[in-house]
Design goal:
Rossmann fold; 6-stranded antiparallel β-sheet
């Protein structure tokens, strides 16, 4: 028996529920499209008030259809959908495409209706596409339930949350020879079938070589990451996620009923899963085409072959902006180039032919072959006017360019070196470009788009090399209870922010390196605690009700032994004067720490992707520079190390002005400890460790805040979140511990 997703995407029979005799209605147009589009399966119109539509017998209900139905296209109003789905379940319909709007994307009533149809569908083993969907298309089979004309056939699977954007992509593909689609699915509200559930199908079907996704919001982003991590081992995925700005987020919410996640988080976790993320719609199709047609790049070194200095320089700049390298060419490569190019040519990298191809474009093939053979070159970018020499100079050059195109494509295929071509004549669609595309060499008019494709090929190739060392994104939701970690502390902390003391106690249970501390409740106890530490101490009032302890004068740094007792009394007086009703647990006494680099380690529970961990430059710099990066928990060692290597402040971590480099292994351990904590405990909403002091031989957590889920949503106790203090973070020239 076929898988349910196969019955949805490869239907051998389709029932149109809501079929109409009116040619202006969707229920009529759908049948017409199927008939005219070459669909060779069986079509069953369903309408209680008609006998015949376009030569087909009409059935009063889907229950009357005499044979099994793989897929139902339901084009009735939303309130009628539940009854139709009940009938679908009675006759073993595999799936249903629900076009109607007015569900979860609208209001509470619509959300309740959506929940009802999902419940009915699941009770009856009917998989739903939508609701609020434009439909789906199996291009090769002619199963077109959208009504879009002229969708070009190709090797891209398209999952899209916007029907209009899908039409735009169909139009773009139709204007570019060699680019097309195997399938299209308008995922709609993802009420049942979600983005991740389509991916295994595309991975195992020969018709699809890459998956294109336009996403406004995921119903289950974590499931998408888990599945994408597996799918991308064989099939590349490109995602364009909208809702990146505040205005965009509001638009996404009103359009799909989904909450758009933070762009920085989305980009980071996509990269972690091996998904290529683009933020421009004009990069989406081009990038997917390059990934489908070209082998992944095994490195970052690109050779530029250009027929003008302007293109060569712009290409080098664009590659550098994308983090790609333009390496020196091997001596042997340069000698081969000198043999075929004029003296004025540059044979370094970028290679500028300097007119050497004006009367003989076949020289391009000789140059490309030399670059493909260079051991320093991972990919080649051919940039300029190739393909347009016959139009620019003389018709006699056209056959020479056609031969050159074949030779270039053959040479690229023989070496498995990726090749991307940028040409100012791409829109003219000359024969040499057609030859390149027939041999799966992508050609683009925009230099920026061509470089974006090379960047995607490099990013994907890098991921494939280390995919086994990355997170699987799987969460063990029972482990928090089993280890007794947060549960042992949350009896009196449920629904609020942990005090710094409780936060550090929990962090210690997860093996995180916290600075030594003592919680004291008297001046005498403070003096005894300080005597246990060498040198001055830091003292902070411990209270979940003091958001900014510095503003309350409830923090004292660099306190000498003889001043500890009086400082204790002063801190309590200041705290009570600032917040008379604050619950005060005592004063935390810790040794001062000043040597090292302040970094921040945090975690949050993203609404779409679940627990994610943050790393960046800390102290007062975190909000000013925003030099931070993210990954989804749980982190592998490679994930954690990549986070550290990714921030811009590498010079500071490596030791600035004669300082020693930080202990990156120790920071990896801190990140993974926090990762385990937030992955284990679903009731932890936020973790904020700022600063963490990273030194030459280790790292210590100086300040810590942990927020439980109820507090993040406005818990009943009304207590506010405790945040790191400006002084404690290093303001006024000091570090708190």
């Amino acid at each position: 028996m076929r898988e349910p997703i196969d019955r949805v995407l490869e239907p051998s029979s389709i029932a149109v529920v809501g079929a109409s005799t009116d040619p202006s209605k969707r229920g009529h147009q759908a049948i017409e499209t199927l008939q005219n589009g070459g669909y060779d399966g069986t079509i069953y119109p369903v309408n209680p008030s008609a006998d015949e539509i376009r030569g087909l017998e009409v059935y009063a209900s889907i229950a009357d259809v005499p044979e099994p139905v793989d897929l139902a296209l339901i084009v009735v109003p939303g309130p009628v959908v539940p009854a139709v789905l009940e009938e679908c379940g009675e006759v073993d319909v595999g799936g249903a495409v629900v076009v109607a709007v007015g569900f979860g994307e609208t209001d509470d009533e619509g959300e309740a209706l959506e929940e009802e149809i999902v419940s009915i569908a699941r009770e009856n083993d009917v998989r739903l596409v939508g609701p609020n969907t434009s439909g789906l298309i199996n291009v090769a089979d002619g199963a077109n339930l959208v009504g879009a004309d002229g969708v070009p056939e190709g090797d891209l699977g398209l999952l899209c949350q916007s029907g209009n954007l899908a039409i735009a992509l169909f139009t773009e593909a139709a204007g570019r020879e060699g680019v097309g689609f195997s399938h299209y699915v308008g995922v709609g509200n993802e009420a049942d079938l979600q983005f991740d559930e389509y991916l295994p199908y595309f991975e195992r079907t020969d018709e699809t070589d890459a998956v294109v996704c336009y996403v406004e919001g995921f119903s289950d982003g974590r499931a998408f990451l888990e599945q994408a991590h597996e799918t991308t081992r064989e099939t590349p995925i490109v995602v364009c996620k909208s809702g990146r700005s505040d205005v965009g987020k509001r638009s996404a919410s009103s359009h799909t009923g989904s909450l758009a996640g933070d762009a920085a988080v989305a980009d980071a976790v996509f990269r972690q899963a091996g998904v290529v993320s683009v933020d421009r719609s004009d990069e989406l199709l081009a990038t997917a085409d390059a990934l489908a047609s070209q082998p992944p790049i095994d490195g970052e070194n690109v050779a530029i072959l250009a027929d003008g200095g302007g293109h060569a320089t712009l290409a080098a700049d664009a590659l550098a902006d994308r983090g790609l390298s333009v390496p020196p060419l091997a001596d042997e490569t340069q000698r081969r180039l000198e043999d075929v190019l004029p003296d004025a040519a540059s044979v370094r990298n970028p290679v500028d032919v300097a007119g050497g191809t004006d009367d003989d474009p076949s020289v391009f093939a000789d140059c490309a072959a030399a670059l493909f053979d260079d051991p320093n070159v991972d990919a080649v970018l051919l940039s300029g006017l190739f393909g347009g020499y016959g139009e620019r100079f003389t018709d006699d050059l056209e056959p020479i360019e056609r031969t050159a195109a074949r030779d270039i494509a053959d040479a690229a295929a023989a070496t498995d070196t990726p090749l991307v071509v940028q040409s100012a004549y791409e829109s003219a669609d000359p024969d040499p470009h057609a030859i390149l595309r027939e041999n799966e060499v992508p050609v683009y008019e925009s230099l920026d788009i061509a470089v974006a494709c090379l960047s995607a090929l490099s990013e994907y190739g890098t991921h494939l090399q280390v995919a086994d060392e990355k997170s699987s994104f799987e969460l063990d939701r029972a482990s928090g209870d089993e280890r007794g970690g947060i549960r042992s502390l949350s009896a009196d902390a449920s629904g609020r922010t942990f005090s710094e003391y409780d936060a550090k106690e929990l962090l210690k249970e997860y093996g995180a390196p916290v600075t030594p501390y003592s919680l004291v409740e008297s001046a005498d106890a403070a003096e005894r605690a300080a005597a246990e530490f060498d040198g001055p101490v830091a003292m902070k009032v411990v209270s979940p009700d003091l958001i900014h302890k510095t503003e309350a004068d409830a923090v004292a740094l660099d306190v000498a032994d003889e001043a500890v007792g009086s400082t204790y009394e002063t801190l309590l007086e200041n705290a009570r004067a600032y917040a008379p009703d604050a619950a005060i647990d005592g004063v935390l006494v810790s040794p001062m720490r000043t040597d090292g680099v302040e970094v921040i380690v945090g975690a949050t529970r993203d609404e779409q992707f679940g627990p994610v961990v943050m790393f960046g430059l800390g102290g007062v710099f975190v909000e000013v520079l925003e030099d931070v990066t993210f990954r989804a928990a749980p982190l592998s060692e490679r994930d954690a190390r990549a986070m550290i290597d990714e921030i811009d402040a590498q010079a500071i971590l490596d030791g600035a002005r004669g300082d020693p480099p930080v202990d990156r292994d120790a920071l990896v351990d801190v990140l993974r400890s926090v990762s385990r904590l937030v992955a284990d405990n679903s009731d932890v909403s936020e973790v904020d460790l700022n600063p963490v002091l990273a030194g030459e031989d280790g790292a210590e957590i100086l300040d810590a805040s942990i927020v439980l889920e109820a507090a993040a949503e406005g818990g009943d106790d009304g207590r506010r979140r405790e945040e790191p203090d400006a002084v404690a973070d290093g303001g006024d020239g000091g570090v708190d511990e």
